[in-house]
Amino acid sequence: MKKLLIAILFSPMLALAAGAQLHLDSAPDKASDMAALQNGAKIFVNYCLNCHSASYMRYNRLKDIGLSDAQIKDNLLFTAEKVGEPMKIAMQRAEAKVWFGAAPPDLTVIARARASEFGSGADWLYTYLRTFYRDENRPTGWNNVVFENVGMPHVLWELQGDQVMGADHKLKLVKPGKLKPQEFDAAVGDLVAFLKYMGEPMAEFRKQLGVIVLIFLAVIFVFAYALKREYWKDVH
Q1: What local confidence, expressed as pLDDT, does residue 23 receive?
Q2: Which keywords does the record carry (predicted)?
Q3: Tens digit of each residue's pLDDT (9 = 90 or more) over 1-35
């Protein structure tokens, strides 16, 4: 009983210690880069939206990143008929669980969810999507450095190519993909930026509004202080 109590008390510390050993690469900040967000949306729709839904995100929110209704309909509207519909998929969760062992999670707030676990959801996603490697012992033929024994295959393998885990425990690219390593990293950065955007589409507006409010309060403070001095100048 005593050992059990000790384990319960110290398990959070042990979990933090284990998580601290995980190295995450820093994701590029592209929150205000409209071209990057648009490319990220294209990659998401073409490579992720087949299995993963984003059911709390509507296609018409893509207009916030500079796309028109016509561009959305012609290039991105694969799983719906109207731009006002959410980004859902046809695959049922029950069927997905049978096929994959677990239903692929909805990705609308995946960046925020990973942030609650690892401090930076963008960094976790950026590292995760770039560290798949061939592993013949896995059912899908793929494994991942960040998410060991993950059930998800490497859906971006055509772009990145094939990586293997070397004897020195470092990843090595043995078969190049369609993109050069630097180009693939940039594409993943665009995708991660879009995933982060979906979690809070109004984030940039909120930050801009916060700056405006602080400037307004600073100006008001100057006038309020001047008024206070004028009222109290004859009081000794």
Answers
A1: 84
A2: Heme, Iron, Membrane, Metal-binding, Signal, Transmembrane, Transmembrane helix
A3: 444 334 433 344 333 334 446 789 999 999 889 99
Same structural domain, 114 and 185: yes
Q: Is 169 within any annotated ligand binding site?
A: no
* Residue 165 backbone dihedrals phi, psi, to 5 degrees: -90, 120
Any binding-site annotation on 236? Answer: no
Ligand-binding annotation for 52, yes or no, is yes
Same-domain status, 97 and 193:
yes
Has residue 8 been placed in a domain?
no
Does residue 182 sit in the same domain as residue 214?
no
Q: Give the whole-angstrom CA distance, residue 31 versus residue 226.
A: 40
Q: Is the pLDDT of residue 59 over 70?
A: yes
Q: Indicate whether 122 and 176 sit together in one domain.
A: yes
Count of CB atoms situated within 10 Å of the CB of 140:
13
Domain that holds residue 226: 202-231
Average pLDDT, the chain: 85
Whose CA is closest to 62, among 207, 198, 212, 235?
198
